[in-house]
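Request: Give me one sample?
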Amino acid sequence: MNTPSALLDRLEAIPGMETGQRRLVLLFTQLGDFDSTEYAQALVPALPAIRRAGIAIQAFAIGDQQGADRFCEFTGFPRDQLQTECNADLHRACGLYAGLNSGAGAWPDLLLMCAGIGSPGTLAEVFRGYRGDRSAPQRFDSSLFRLAGGDGFQRPFELATVRLNNMVEVLGRWKQYVPDDRFIAQRGGTFLIESDNSLLYVHRDKGILGFSETMNRPLSFLDAYL
Protein backbone atom coordinates (compact mmCIF):
# COMPACT_ATOMS: atom_id res chain seq x y z
CA MET A 1 0.00 0.00 0.00
CA ASN A 2 1.24 3.44 -0.88
CA THR A 3 0.76 6.54 1.23
CA PRO A 4 -1.59 8.94 -0.61
CA SER A 5 0.46 11.60 -2.37
CA ALA A 6 -1.95 14.34 -1.29
CA LEU A 7 -1.23 13.48 2.33
CA LEU A 8 2.53 13.40 1.85
CA ASP A 9 2.40 16.79 0.15
CA ARG A 10 0.58 18.26 3.13
CA LEU A 11 2.97 16.73 5.64
CA GLU A 12 6.06 18.02 3.87
CA ALA A 13 4.80 21.56 4.45
CA ILE A 14 4.49 21.05 8.24
CA PRO A 15 7.72 21.45 10.27
CA GLY A 16 8.55 18.21 12.05
CA MET A 17 6.37 16.06 9.79
CA GLU A 18 8.72 15.72 6.83
CA THR A 19 10.14 12.52 5.38
CA GLY A 20 12.74 10.89 7.61
CA GLN A 21 10.69 9.83 10.63
CA ARG A 22 7.67 7.76 11.48
CA ARG A 23 4.45 9.74 11.49
CA LEU A 24 1.00 8.98 12.83
CA VAL A 25 -1.51 10.95 10.79
CA LEU A 26 -5.15 11.15 11.81
CA LEU A 27 -7.83 12.37 9.48
CA PHE A 28 -10.62 13.15 11.89
CA THR A 29 -14.10 13.73 10.57
CA GLN A 30 -16.05 16.92 11.34
CA LEU A 31 -14.90 18.44 14.60
CA GLY A 32 -18.47 17.98 15.82
CA ASP A 33 -18.58 14.32 14.86
CA PHE A 34 -18.68 12.09 17.93
CA ASP A 35 -16.06 9.82 16.31
CA SER A 36 -13.52 12.65 16.24
CA THR A 37 -14.10 13.48 19.89
CA GLU A 38 -13.95 9.87 21.06
CA TYR A 39 -10.83 9.13 19.01
CA ALA A 40 -9.03 12.19 20.37
CA GLN A 41 -9.95 11.18 23.91
CA ALA A 42 -8.47 7.73 23.29
CA LEU A 43 -5.28 9.23 21.88
CA VAL A 44 -4.50 11.85 24.51
CA PRO A 45 -3.35 9.45 27.28
CA ALA A 46 -1.15 7.61 24.77
CA LEU A 47 0.59 10.68 23.34
CA PRO A 48 3.66 10.54 25.65
CA ALA A 49 4.32 6.89 24.73
CA ILE A 50 3.86 7.64 21.04
CA ARG A 51 6.36 10.49 21.23
CA ARG A 52 8.85 8.38 23.19
CA ALA A 53 8.70 5.83 20.36
CA GLY A 54 9.86 8.55 17.97
CA ILE A 55 6.54 8.84 16.17
CA ALA A 56 5.46 12.35 15.18
CA ILE A 57 1.73 13.08 15.29
CA GLN A 58 -0.46 15.25 13.10
CA ALA A 59 -4.23 15.46 12.79
CA PHE A 60 -6.49 17.07 10.21
CA ALA A 61 -10.21 17.68 10.75
CA ILE A 62 -13.08 19.33 8.90
CA GLY A 63 -13.97 22.59 10.62
CA ASP A 64 -12.42 25.96 11.39
CA GLN A 65 -9.99 27.55 13.83
CA GLN A 66 -12.59 28.44 16.42
CA GLY A 67 -13.96 24.92 16.44
CA ALA A 68 -10.45 23.47 16.69
CA ASP A 69 -9.70 25.65 19.71
CA ARG A 70 -12.77 24.35 21.53
CA PHE A 71 -12.21 20.75 20.40
CA CYS A 72 -8.70 20.75 21.86
CA GLU A 73 -9.82 22.46 25.04
CA PHE A 74 -12.49 19.79 25.56
CA THR A 75 -10.52 16.69 24.55
CA GLY A 76 -7.01 17.71 25.59
CA PHE A 77 -5.63 17.05 22.10
CA PRO A 78 -2.62 19.31 21.37
CA ARG A 79 -3.76 22.35 19.43
CA ASP A 80 -0.49 22.68 17.52
CA GLN A 81 -0.96 19.19 16.11
CA LEU A 82 -4.41 19.79 14.64
CA GLN A 83 -5.05 21.54 11.34
CA THR A 84 -8.52 22.28 10.01
CA GLU A 85 -9.95 21.75 6.55
CA CYS A 86 -12.87 23.77 5.20
CA ASN A 87 -14.07 20.82 3.12
CA ALA A 88 -13.52 17.09 2.58
CA ASP A 89 -11.08 17.37 -0.33
CA LEU A 90 -8.10 15.97 1.60
CA HIS A 91 -10.19 13.12 3.01
CA ARG A 92 -11.42 12.12 -0.41
CA ALA A 93 -7.96 12.45 -1.95
CA CYS A 94 -6.87 9.88 0.65
CA GLY A 95 -9.59 7.47 -0.43
CA LEU A 96 -11.77 7.89 2.65
CA TYR A 97 -15.45 7.00 2.64
CA ALA A 98 -17.63 10.03 1.89
CA GLY A 99 -20.54 8.44 3.72
CA LEU A 100 -23.94 7.41 2.48
CA ASN A 101 -25.14 9.39 -0.54
CA SER A 102 -28.85 8.71 -0.90
CA GLY A 103 -29.51 11.95 -2.72
CA ALA A 104 -31.72 13.18 0.13
CA GLY A 105 -29.11 15.50 1.63
CA ALA A 106 -26.44 15.48 4.31
CA TRP A 107 -28.72 15.28 7.34
CA PRO A 108 -30.96 12.44 6.08
CA ASP A 109 -27.83 10.57 5.05
CA LEU A 110 -26.34 11.01 8.52
CA LEU A 111 -29.51 9.81 10.23
CA LEU A 112 -29.64 6.75 8.01
CA MET A 113 -26.02 6.00 8.84
CA CYS A 114 -26.80 6.30 12.56
CA ALA A 115 -29.40 3.59 11.95
CA GLY A 116 -26.72 1.40 10.37
CA ILE A 117 -27.61 2.01 6.72
CA GLY A 118 -24.44 2.53 4.71
CA SER A 119 -22.57 2.38 8.01
CA PRO A 120 -21.61 -1.21 8.90
CA GLY A 121 -20.90 -1.93 12.54
CA THR A 122 -22.53 1.23 13.90
CA LEU A 123 -25.44 -0.36 15.73
CA ALA A 124 -23.26 -3.10 17.22
CA GLU A 125 -20.89 -0.46 18.56
CA VAL A 126 -23.74 1.58 20.02
CA PHE A 127 -25.05 -1.50 21.82
CA ARG A 128 -21.54 -2.31 23.10
CA GLY A 129 -21.54 1.07 24.81
CA TYR A 130 -24.63 0.11 26.77
CA ARG A 131 -23.95 -3.52 27.60
CA GLY A 132 -20.28 -3.10 28.59
CA ASP A 133 -17.22 -4.97 27.38
CA ARG A 134 -14.88 -7.07 29.50
CA SER A 135 -12.14 -6.75 26.84
CA ALA A 136 -12.10 -2.94 27.08
CA PRO A 137 -10.62 -0.78 29.87
CA GLN A 138 -12.83 1.05 32.35
CA ARG A 139 -13.41 4.75 31.76
CA PHE A 140 -14.49 6.03 35.18
CA ASP A 141 -13.33 5.50 38.74
CA SER A 142 -16.85 5.61 40.10
CA SER A 143 -18.65 3.64 42.79
CA LEU A 144 -21.79 3.76 40.65
CA PHE A 145 -20.16 1.81 37.82
CA ARG A 146 -18.41 -0.43 40.33
CA LEU A 147 -21.80 -1.42 41.69
CA ALA A 148 -22.99 -2.02 38.13
CA GLY A 149 -20.37 -4.63 37.43
CA GLY A 150 -17.02 -4.35 39.19
CA ASP A 151 -13.63 -2.90 38.29
CA GLY A 152 -10.95 -3.23 35.63
CA PHE A 153 -13.13 -3.38 32.53
CA GLN A 154 -15.74 -1.35 30.70
CA ARG A 155 -18.92 -1.67 32.73
CA PRO A 156 -22.52 -1.49 31.41
CA PHE A 157 -23.49 2.05 30.32
CA GLU A 158 -19.95 3.32 30.96
CA LEU A 159 -19.01 4.04 27.35
CA ALA A 160 -22.54 5.22 26.68
CA THR A 161 -22.02 7.80 29.43
CA VAL A 162 -18.81 9.01 27.77
CA ARG A 163 -20.69 9.38 24.52
CA LEU A 164 -23.56 11.21 26.20
CA ASN A 165 -21.11 13.69 27.73
CA ASN A 166 -19.57 14.22 24.31
CA MET A 167 -23.00 14.71 22.75
CA VAL A 168 -23.95 17.35 25.31
CA GLU A 169 -20.71 19.22 24.60
CA VAL A 170 -21.06 19.13 20.83
CA LEU A 171 -24.78 19.86 20.56
CA GLY A 172 -24.42 22.77 22.96
CA ARG A 173 -21.83 24.36 20.66
CA TRP A 174 -22.90 22.91 17.33
CA LYS A 175 -22.17 25.89 15.08
CA GLN A 176 -18.77 26.31 16.69
CA TYR A 177 -17.89 22.70 15.94
CA VAL A 178 -19.67 22.43 12.58
CA PRO A 179 -19.72 25.71 10.63
CA ASP A 180 -20.60 23.83 7.40
CA ASP A 181 -22.74 20.71 7.69
CA ARG A 182 -22.36 19.55 4.09
CA PHE A 183 -19.65 17.12 5.15
CA ILE A 184 -21.22 15.57 8.25
CA ALA A 185 -21.40 12.11 6.65
CA GLN A 186 -17.70 12.10 5.66
CA ARG A 187 -15.66 9.42 7.45
CA GLY A 188 -12.05 9.62 8.56
CA GLY A 189 -8.94 7.48 8.61
CA THR A 190 -5.65 6.62 10.27
CA PHE A 191 -2.25 6.43 8.54
CA LEU A 192 0.99 5.25 10.15
CA ILE A 193 3.80 6.24 7.79
CA GLU A 194 7.37 4.95 7.85
CA SER A 195 10.35 7.31 7.59
CA ASP A 196 10.73 6.47 3.88
CA ASN A 197 7.05 7.34 3.27
CA SER A 198 5.93 3.73 2.92
CA LEU A 199 2.69 2.89 4.67
CA LEU A 200 3.00 0.77 7.81
CA TYR A 201 -0.70 0.79 8.68
CA VAL A 202 -3.93 2.28 7.39
CA HIS A 203 -7.50 2.23 8.57
CA ARG A 204 -10.27 3.84 6.56
CA ASP A 205 -13.46 4.21 8.54
CA LYS A 206 -16.38 2.29 7.08
CA GLY A 207 -19.08 3.97 9.13
CA ILE A 208 -20.03 5.92 12.23
CA LEU A 209 -18.27 4.69 15.39
CA GLY A 210 -15.82 2.79 13.22
CA PHE A 211 -12.68 4.88 13.67
CA SER A 212 -10.69 1.77 14.67
CA GLU A 213 -10.67 -1.87 13.65
CA THR A 214 -10.61 -2.70 17.37
CA MET A 215 -13.02 -0.34 19.07
CA ASN A 216 -12.55 -2.05 22.43
CA ARG A 217 -8.89 -0.92 22.31
CA PRO A 218 -8.72 1.68 19.53
CA LEU A 219 -4.94 2.09 19.58
CA SER A 220 -3.95 -1.58 19.52
CA PHE A 221 -2.54 -1.11 15.99
CA LEU A 222 0.31 0.83 17.62
CA ASP A 223 1.37 -1.95 19.98
CA ALA A 224 4.06 -3.26 17.61
CA TYR A 225 5.65 0.19 17.27
CA LEU A 226 5.73 1.47 20.87
Summary: The chain is about 40% helix and 15% strand. The chain has one domain: 5-225. The CA atoms of residues 148 and 156 lie 7 Å apart.
